[in-house]
Amino acid sequence: MKDLFGKAILDFQTNNNPEDLITETSISEADEMSVAYLFRNFNEMPKIEQKALQLAKGKILDVGCGAGSHSLYLQNERNLDVTSIDISANAIEACRLRGLKKAAIQNVMTLENEKFDTILLLMNGAGMCGKLKNISNFLQKLKSLLNEGGQVLVDSSDIIYMFDEDEDGGKWIPTDMDYYGEVVFDISYKGEKEEPFDWMYIDYNTLQNAAHANGLQCELILEGEHYDYLANIH
């Protein structure tokens, strides 16, 4: 990976002529995303993210922390012990420049010998497992990182609305898809193109079923305005 997403974050943090990121998926057209959005403060965050940050407690792991905005709020405003991880070296450098005390380049799937009270997977964090077939391994890993009584706070979206309806009012989903929430992401930045990568939007029922299959409880905390939701897995 060229780490273009992280490059955009670091460019913004260091005032190095940041530009918009161009994101495109296998089911949606190219879209411009302002990097500034990743640097929002608590008041600028969607209600779902605000709620997750209010529910976070104890020792916290922020997975896929990006520019670190969620972690910064928890560290600075709530004085909580937060470890922020991302696979992007550039993003982690930006996090450190912003004053995050515990930011590390780390894939959650290879994190060992640590336990947390809250694991945050915000901005559709469950999507990082890429495909639905990977969800059990992913949930088992998260479970192994939780303290007794710990919680995973995760948000995602049900993207069924993006598919056309058939004559019966049902949704027409291409037969070559294993699960309609799986997409391939393309990111471009400053004229460079990232390697395409798998991502997944998971509807609540599918997430709940996967949690139960892995010996976990899943609870719906909040629904957003556009097919999005916040869940607590414990």
Describe this structure as you would to a colleague:
The protein has 234 residues and is an alpha/beta fold. It has one domain: Vaccinia Virus protein VP39 (Rossmann fold, 3-Layer(aba) Sandwich). It contains six helices and twelve strands. The chain has helices spanning 4-13, 47-55, 69-77, 89-97, 135-144, 204-213, and strands spanning 21-25, 28-33, 59-63, 81-86, 103-105, 116-121, 146-157, 182-189, 192-193, 197-200, 218-223, 228-233. A seven-stranded mixed sheet has the order 5-4-3-6-7-12-11, sandwiched between helices. Strands 1, 2, 8, 9 and 10 form a five-stranded antiparallel sheet that branches. Strand 11 (218-223) and strand 12 form a beta hairpin. The protein starts with a helix and ends with a strand. The model has no long low-confidence stretch (mean pLDDT 95).
Rg, Å, rounded: 18 Å
Query: How many alpha or pi helices?
Result: 6
Biggest sheet strand order reads 5-4-3-6-7-12-11
CATH architecture assignment name: 3-Layer(aba) Sandwich
- Residues in helices, as a percent range: 10-25%
| Number of E-type strands | 12
The CATH homologous superfamily name equals Vaccinia Virus protein VP39
User: How many angstroms does the end-to-end distance come to?
Assistant: 33 Å
- Mean pLDDT rating: 95
**CATH class annotation:** Alpha Beta
Number of domains: 1
**The biggest beta sheet, please?**
7 strands, mixed
CATH topology: Rossmann fold
